[in-house]
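Summary of Year 1 activities. Much of the first year was spent building the evaluation harness for sequence design. The harness presents a backbone, in tokenized form, and records the residue chosen at every position. We chose the following record to illustrate the format because it has been used consistently in internal testing since the harness was completed.
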């Protein structure tokens, strides 16, 4: 079942045309660790705090349910906020939505998994469990990875900066890294690496 989900995700991600891959510096996915992820984050101008990874068990499900880069927004109670106007809208709406977030706003909160449930899928970059974040008006989870290259500057960095510059509320940014992690079990690392290098 897990392999089927990985291959489904590959079909979604494989839509990038070769010329786009060259322009944006998109490379073949590889196994990453805390050092390589932090180094790339610095290269893209990203804040290196609050970077988390996904467990190997949950990796195919998270990868299948989001595009890269993408983001999810939760309110102070961990309720999911839908920023898209329609189901087919792309993530471009985030560029306008993030600066307009404020504590008195009214938002579409569909019956969806909350932040607490999502948080169980995440680990730090060494594979350790972490406490659920608190003390923010909103939580912005940005899904990204090393191998998508310049898209991290064009999307992730801008979203991160927009959240920081929003003075109407406190937005905690958590960057969810969707690379194959070195701390995973050897068999799973190799299975995902082989599958994803077919992109």
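For this record, the design step produced the sequence shown next.
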């Amino acid at each position: 079942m897990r392999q089927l989900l990985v291959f489904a995700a590959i079909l979604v991600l494989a839509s990038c045309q070769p010329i786009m891959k060259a322009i944006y510096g998109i490379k073949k996915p590889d196994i990453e660790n805390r050092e390589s992820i932090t180094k790339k984050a610095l290269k893209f101008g990203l804040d290196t705090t609050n970077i988390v990874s996904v467990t190997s068990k949950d990796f195919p499900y998270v990868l299948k349910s989001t595009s890269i880069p993408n983001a999810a927004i939760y309110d102070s109670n961990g309720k999911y906020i839908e920023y898209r106007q329609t189901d087919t809208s792309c993530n471009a709406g985030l560029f306008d939505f993030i600066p307009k977030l404020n504590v008195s706003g009214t938002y579409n909160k569909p019956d969806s998994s909350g932040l607490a449930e999502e948080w169980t899928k995440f680990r730090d970059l060494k594979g350790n469990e972490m406490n659920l974040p608190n003390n923010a008006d909103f939580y912005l989870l940005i899904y990204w990875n090393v191998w998508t290259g310049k898209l991290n500057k064009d999307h992730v960095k801008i979203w991160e900066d927009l959240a920081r510059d929003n003075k109407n509320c406190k937005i905690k940014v958590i960057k969810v890294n969707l690379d194959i992690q070195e701390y995973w079990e050897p068999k799973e690392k190799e299975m995902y690496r082989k599958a994803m290098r077919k992109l």
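The two ends are 19 Å apart (CA to CA). Quantitative recovery figures across the full test set are reported in Table 2.
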